[in-house]
Amino acid sequence: MRVEVTPRQANVVPGIPLSIAITITNTNTVIGGYAVRMLGADPGWIELQADQISLFPDESRTITATITAPSGIPAGARRIAIQVRELTPPEASSITELDLTVPAARSLQLRLDPLAITAGRAANFSLVVENTGNTSITGYLSGDDPEGKVRFRFEPERVSLTPGEHSVVDLRATARRHITGSPAVRMLGIYLDEVAPDAFFSDSDYAAADSDQPTTRAEQDALATGTFVQRAVLSRGPLSLLGLLAAVTVFAVVITLAMSRLVGQSAADRNLALQVAAARNASATTGTSGVAGTVHLLTSGTPVRGVSVSVFNAADTSTAIATSATDSKGVYQVGNLAAGKYKLSFRGAGFVQLWYPGAATDADATTVTLAAGEQKDGVNVSLGGVPATISGTVKGDDVSTSTLYLEKTTPAATNGAFSPAATTAGSPDGGAIVSTVPVGSDGTFTLTNVPSPSVYQLVVTKTGYATSVQRIDIGAGETRTGVQLLLSKGDGLMSGVVNSPTGPLGGATITATAGQATANTVSLTDGQVGTFTLRSLPTPGSFTVVASKAGFASQTLTLTMSAGQKLSGVSITLGQSSGSLAGLVTQLPSNNPAAGVAVTVTDGQLTVQTETESTAKIGAWQVGGLPVPGTYTVTFTRRDLAAQTVSVSLDAAGNITPGSQGTRITADGISVGMQSATAVVYGTTSQPGGATVCNAANAIGEATVTLNSGASSYAVTSASQPNGKCGQYRIEQVPAGTYTLTVSAGSGTSPSSQVITVQAGDSRLVNVALARPASLSGTVVSRADGAPQCGWTVQLFQVSQYPTTVTATTTTDRTPTGNRPCRGAFGFTGIPAGNYILSVGSTPGNAAATVPVTVQPSQQLTNLRVEVP
């Protein structure tokens, strides 16, 4: 088998199909079957032209694999593999790696909330920065206005976003106010200056961003725009009021009379306005429809109570027409709504305001449409909190140079288990580190911009000291102060050995915990296998010691140590908690390793599946995590092999017991030989005088070979090339049963049929010899004296094609030479059976005599006598 893949390296653009050509060549001497699949890629990306093909010897075929990457996939390099596996012996497997690169497509969206603010000297905006591309973006925010009057302050100024991530930035815009006059309208433009994520920046590089001097940019470069309407210190209203007071003094009487009339009219207008407003509110909030849902935390998914829910008309989001709040289960409900279109806003103390379902502004919110009487449930949202702050003090005899980690809690972290020696690199307990700060000599620390709400662990470490761990639950936007952690001097030592039922056990994890102090290590795997030592333990104290290893039941001890004690000789024995099974599958009768065999292990409750290897150690398999002791049924299946089942029992140590049935234990584990589930029928077709005889043994190619059982039918064509394979045929994957084997080679030959019976695993040789094809011969003589006529043209027509289409033409033998007399003989060989008209003339097309002739399959029709004038 030879496999060629083109191209081997390519760029794949999301949404645009990429075609990969896979050319497979059969280098074996028999017909081969091949299965093709793609490894390392989502099946939804891949479309194969064909996943299985069959090839004659030396035949090649190209199939096309179309790869379509989905939109939104991150940029970068990806490696997938194309596996081609033979379905017939020797069942080899070929894997070709393909390097794909998703080009970077940068896309960024900036949105100001609100879009316009009327204020005095300063206006505060919220800026939502969202990475809508497929590659990370890092940059510094800046702003300008056409007049260059506004100063911008961003918190934070620098943003770094991965694909799909967004960040909320506080923007403060300030400018000098006019003393008097109309409000000044200042158009704001917001920009992001992108930089390389690993670039180095000095303070001078972004001096303009920190400077009080505003900058001006081209308006078309702005990624977001907003409006700052700035009021003057003294507006025109107060100035005009002075003039009005003077006028009131002069025209007091007139004004008094006018005002009395105006008050009456205003009262009427006020009553009318109140009636209109009441009618509007009634129409907006009176109805039979409603909306309900649940509010969850974005970080943990738990319900949030006390969140304000506001319902707005979709066409006017300035004033809420109905409000509600979530209960203790995070559920809210708003009723009495008229049929129409609405937008919903969610706001809570310590949380970022959110528009349904996850928008930062009303413009991006999804409209909720209610029909008359409809109660729409499931309008759910997830809120994220404003970043929190944690501060406190680490206490101890010497806390300088210690390090504080803020970690997300993990199952391992709840035990407080980690090695003090490993605290200088990465997470001490393997969990996700959110933030790391050094602890000063005074022990104080502060953690800012902590994602909230969430549950974390505060971990403080220092070489030679016991590690201290404290769990902390932070609310949305909370500022937590006064947190205290204790860093204790570790002067104790604990050592011993970990054993198993079969002897010392290396690679076991030993964890000692006393209050907040935790230390761990691993038992040795070389030298003094199983031994361990725990150092820097704070003493005196009582320790809970836990020894564990995958596949073994954990063991827990409680040990008490005095001040400075060096405790040795601790012995811990771990019993087997799970076992494993492995083995090798071969195919009979060749005993060649069998790849791609499905292996299913079950005890009735637990079921584990795997497949025998197709590369490396072909035919090998292994499953682990099996509870012991236990009895398991192991089933081996492959489409072309007869299924086989064995029963295996594991004792408490994970060893196979002698009572297991149907197994043969070898150095490779369980040895299983599988018989083919189908048979192979093969052979050679031959025919003396056949039209496609291609070697000296009368082997004939292009003969049709069929195998039929009534329920199933198979058909192949015997080979016509190369010469060494002439006449050979092969039918594979034939189920056991009785079949009729029929060979035919055209209508001029009688087919040959025989009944054969095959068993599973048979390789049946059936050679078939066909009778000669039909032929016709005779002589042309004179009607007057019976003399042979030489050199006459003899034409053969099928009855349905006479006289337009000639089937065959020949000439009677000519004037004799030497001792060979003229016989007037003619003949046609290898003709199909049927009804013919024989036309004889002195020249072609000039018939002197016609004779009807019928030829049966394989008939050798001779001694025809045609008389001519």
Q: Gap between N and C termini, in Å? A: 68 Å
Please give the radius of gyration in angstroms: 46 Å
Q: State the helicity in percent bands.
A: under 10%
Give the uncertain stretches in residue-range form.
198-215, 262-266, 272-285, 411-430
Number of strands: 67
Features:
about 850 residues, mainly beta, 67 strands, about 50% strand, flat
Folded structure, characterized:
The chain is mainly beta and 869 residues long. The chain is 6% helix and 50% strand. The chain contains 3 helices and 67 strands. The strands form 15 sheets. Strands 29, 30, 32, 33, 35, 38, 39, 41 and 42 form a 9-stranded antiparallel sheet that branches. Strands 2-9-8-4-6 form a 5-stranded mixed sheet, with no helix packed on it. The longest helix has 34 residues, at 252-285. Mean pLDDT is 81; it is low at 198-215, 262-266, 272-285 and 411-430.
Gist of the model:
With 869 residues, the protein is mostly beta strands. 6% of the residues lie in helices and 50% in strands.
Task: Summarize the topology.
Blueprint (H helix, E strand, L loop, with lengths): L1 E5 L2 E3 L6 E8 L6 E8 L6 E3 L3 E4 L4 E8 L8 E11 L6 E10 L5 E6 L2 E4 L2 E10 L5 E8 L6 E5 L2 E4 L4 E9 L9 E12 L11 H4 L13 E7 L5 H15 L1 H34 L3 E9 L10 E6 L8 E4 L5 E7 L2 E8 L6 E2 L12 E3 L4 E2 L4 E3 L4 E8 L7 E6 L24 E6 L5 E7 L3 E8 L3 E10 L4 E8 L1 E2 L2 E9 L2 E2 L4 E6 L2 E6 L8 E7 L3 E8 L6 E7 L4 E8 L4 E10 L4 E2 L4 E5 L4 E5 L8 E8 L2 E9 L2 E10 L13 E3 L2 E6 L3 E9 L17 E5 L4 E5 L10 E8 L1 E8 L7 E7 L4 E3 L2 E2 L4 E9 L10 E6 L9 E4 L13 E7 L2 E8 L7 E7 L4 E9 L1
Parallel strand pairs: 2-9, 11-18, 19-26, 19-27, 28-34, 36-43, 44-52, 53-59, 53-60, 61-67
Antiparallel strand pairs: 1-3, 3-7, 4-6, 4-8, 5-7, 8-9, 10-12, 12-16, 13-15, 13-17, 14-16, 17-18, 19-22, 20-21, 20-23, 23-24, 23-25, 28-31, 29-30, 29-32, 32-33, 33-35, 33-39, 36-37, 36-40, 38-39, 38-41, 41-42, 44-45, 44-48, 46-47, 46-49, 49-50, 51-52, 53-56, 54-55, 54-57, 57-58, 61-64, 62-63, ...
